[in-house]
Amino acid sequence: MPTDWNPVLRDQFDEPYWSELMDFVARERSLYDVYPPADEVFAALHLTALANTRVVIIGQDPYHGPGQAHGLAFSVRHGQRIPPSLRNIHRELTDDLGIALPAHGNLDAWAHQGVLLLNTTLTVRAGEAGSHRGRGWEHFTDRVIGAVSTSINPVVFICWGAAARAKQSLIDTARHTVITSAHPSPLSAHNGFFGSRPFSATNNALIAAGAEPIDWTL
Fold this sequence. Notes:
Low-confidence stretches: none
Radius of gyration: 17 Å
Helix content: 25-40%
Number of helices: 8
Distance between the termini: 27 Å
Strand order of the largest sheet: 3-2-5-6
Mean pLDDT: 96
Structural class: alpha/beta
């Protein structure tokens, strides 16, 4: 992991859970299709350095359809059909900021601006949502969240849905801003995600802290 995350996270590689987790993922890849590809599992950390992180959007596990997941929460590759949750995110983005509805689902542009798109589980078996939860990834990604929380720079954490909101205990809320709502999934978006205006709220918090806002255009 040749990024500034390495000195912060490398102690995790000596923890007992890490070798068990790597063995599990290797075994899964030998038996099934697993997403994202091995060289993109840590894409979020490669695209968004710790020192540059200004916003964290917490997801759950990667998309489990072929060609979708590429290591960034909620994002899909160019040319992929936009999944329902991301389509709802796009809709809220347009309603919130008046940005034209994006024609694609690739969120690299956000990552390059300091938006860490972090799933709490970093791999998944094809066609089986949640299949790699509880295997150890959560220990690692909790450490990532904790590392951002210790940053001296103000960060905005966006927690959509109960699983993401459960991570609030890892965040220093005296130092950072936490924005919560229902998950953008079609099952819950109408219960508090739509109309929550997370993008303008994030930029307002950044500006209030003397930081540059995010250009959310895709």
